[in-house]
């Protein structure tokens, strides 16, 4: 874990009544997690977030220099306190270290939004053991460890806590990603009864194909053709639902796997 920076943080926990969200995987301005961070800030949350530059560097879209800092500035301009932490979630000690950093700088976490993503296209026949293990370390094991830390540390009012994860059912031709995301949503749904004594709601969202820069023009056309609303998902679509689930109004939705994909067939 490295690259920890903060904007407008205070040791006393900040404004009374302003809750704190921790969002993972917000390294790209075009990504879903970045939209989630901004939407929660607009809705009155302070927001800590993680990013992992080495992942972006080996993907075809490449690094986006300055993106975490720019996201922090946008969050701060909305009146929210924020903390950005570069965190390698494939390392099992990092989730506990992350919570320590966030609690030290911003206070106790009310909402945990899990958007970690290790995603390298490969199928049954060409996936390597190393790639398979890395996908599960980031997308599944880190989900468990982060939720465990959250459950051990949660100090909020009964009924105020929220856990939301972003999953996927894209497995054929994308085996380690889809399989590890399937494990991710099972872990999230298991947390609902296990954390019921804390009054924490836990649900997973499958946002379907979302235009964050990973699709070819052919893939975009195909997804539009199979979606009832005739368009691709955009990050704001998912961010809107995450923000609702984290709100008081969303507090009766629990232990659900939600398909939020415009009617993808």
Automatic annotation (TrEMBL):
Pfam families: adh_short_C2. SUPFAM superfamilies: NAD(P)-binding Rossmann-fold domains (SSF51735). Signal peptide: none annotated. Keywords: Oxidoreductase. InterPro entries: NAD(P)-bd_dom_sf, Sc_DH/Rdtase_CS, SDR_fam. GO terms for molecular function: oxidoreductase activity, acting on CH-OH group of donors. It comes from the Bacteria. PANTHER family: NADPH-DEPENDENT ALDEHYDE REDUCTASE-LIKE PROTEIN, CHLOROPLASTIC-RELATED, RE15974P. Belongs to the short-chain dehydrogenases/reductases (SDR) family. This is Short-chain dehydrogenase.
